[in-house]
Amino acid sequence: MYARNWLLVAVLTLLISLVSIPRSPAFAQPNPDSGVPGGPFSTAFRVQNLGSADANCSYQVFNATGNSVFASGPLPSVPPGASLYVFTPSVSGFPSGVFAATVSCDQPVAAVVNYSDANSGDTFVGVSSPATTLYVPSVYDNYYNYYTSIRIMNASSSPNNVTIKYYDGATEVVSERDTFQLQGNGSRAVIHEGRSGFVPNKVYSAVITSDNSLPLAAIVQIYGRGPVDEQLYAYTAFSGGSTKAYVPLVMSKYYDYDTATSVQNVGNSTTTVTVTYSSGLTQTFNLAPGASQTLLDFNLLPSSNQAYSAVVTSSSQPIIVTVNESRRGTKLATTYEGFSSGATRWVAPIVMKNYYNYQSSITCQNIGTGPANISVAYKGEAAGTGAVNVPLTHKVTGLPVNQSAVILQQLEAALPNNFIGSAQIEATQPIICVVNQSNQTVGATQDQLYAYNALIQP
Predict the structure, then answer these.
(1) Would you say the CATH fold of 244-337 matches that of 3-125?
(2) For burial by CB atoms within 10 Å, which of 31, 48, 150, 392 has the most?
């Protein structure tokens, strides 16, 4: 039985996605294939084995019309807990262009994709469970100089008719409805910039449906113009929600980092939403079905070098949550998704220590009923060192309920410099974890901040 992940963006050239290179001008308009300005982009993805036996994997790449343009053949087997790294510009015979891909393995796996050009980049988690309905909490057409695009893949082999409805609160913006057909394994970017039916400085939401009841996968991209140009955010569209969501990392001037949290009601009636920050602050508001609201955490929380967490509850309807991160005075920006549930075992497919000036951090929130102890193990490789295997080691003691702790890989003495690999996280209480990657040395001129949700270990 093969597990499969759908990788929505494979934008490939000979650029190196994790190495600093000179800046180049952004395109005047979004690239209709990738859905964002700039480029050309390149990608690197890492596949972590979540199973109990060696994983045998391969991947296949499809163009916009769903035709296969590259097949990897069998890749080196991946031991349990370890990961496989694919840097696409280094793969012989890999074509240049904008593609979607599937990764197939005979063990359960998790895949994380980094993509970037010379100026900006972000990351997203491969979709393991495509769905016939997907939700997007934030759609922008000049929301204080920010815009969005949605990149969608047909995760079936048959033609799939797609409809995207956009909402202003509970009211559909009918003039902007998108309808189109995707061929089997086909993909396209839907761009929102310059639409006459959207009003500047307003947040809309979207619902994506398959008219043929065939599965879809999608990522959402947010990009800046003018004073926030070259900032890029990305996250995976949601297939459903829950009445409670957990947010492990919210900030107000935390070493100059800020966050903004967006909540969408994906139910069918109005619900009351309460956001409880670990600082003790609460915010309560009503959301109509389909509507979303954005909280500017940096205006609500105390400005300090302390990271906070939050719990978002809905009185009756399922909700979804996203968090945008950025750093003041820099280009750094990224997005991650709120969590609907926790677990005591997690995996992080990409973590780094001084890898071409990139560092990573793992932030975990205790959502259990008592204090949590957290341990972390690492597997990967480093230039000049070869294979790296750091066993499970205790890192956090007695983390209070609903509080978060940050684990910095650059402070891990057992990890060599130039390390890139994966992590396994275990706790004595249910936790949730988000991973940040960044290159602080280029933050003033480039957006090289990436965030993704860790994944539950089966």
Answers:
(1) yes
(2) 48
Cα–Cα dist 60/109, whole Å:
16
CATH numeric code, 244-337: 2.60.290
Q: Among all chains, which residue has been given the structure tokens 């960044």?
A: 438
Find the helix or strand (DSSP H, E) in which 297 lies: helix 297-300
Question: Does the 133-236 domain belong in CATH 2.60.290.11?
Answer: yes
d(Cα 434, Cα 373) in Å, to the nearest integer? 17
Q: Which residues pair with 165 in a beta bridge?
A: 207
Q: How far apart are CA 59 and CA 124, in angstroms?
A: 17
Phi, psi for residue 88 in degrees, rounded to 5: -60, -35
Question: 183: part of which helix (H) or strand (E)?
Answer: none
- The rounded distance, in Å, linking the Cα atoms of 82 and 387 is 10
Identity of the residue numbered 157: S
Residues whose CB is less than 8 angstroms from the CB of residue 186 and which lie 6 or more positions away in sequence, other chains included: 62, 63, 64, 65, 66, 100, 153, 154
Residues 6 or more apart whose CB falls under 8 angstroms from that of 45 comprise 7, 85, 86, 88, 103, 111, 112, 113, 114, 126
Strand partners, 48: 83, 110
CATH topology of domain 343-456: Hypothetical Protein Tm1070; Chain: A (2.60.290)
- pLDDT tens digits for range 211-252: 989 999 999 999 999 888 889 999 999 999 999 999 999 999
> How far apart are the C-alpha atoms of 404 and 126, rounded to whole Å?
25
Six token digits for residue 364 = 């975990």
Class of 3-125 in CATH: mainly beta
Render pLDDT for 180-207 as a digit per residue (tens, 0 to 9): 999 999 999 999 999 999 999 999 999 9
C-alpha dihedral (139, 142, 144, 146), degrees to nearest 10: 60
Contacts of 336 (CB under 8 A, 6+ apart): 235, 249, 322, 323, 325, 434, 451, 452, 453
Query: What are the boundaries of each domain within the chain?
Result: 3-125, 133-236, 244-337, 343-456
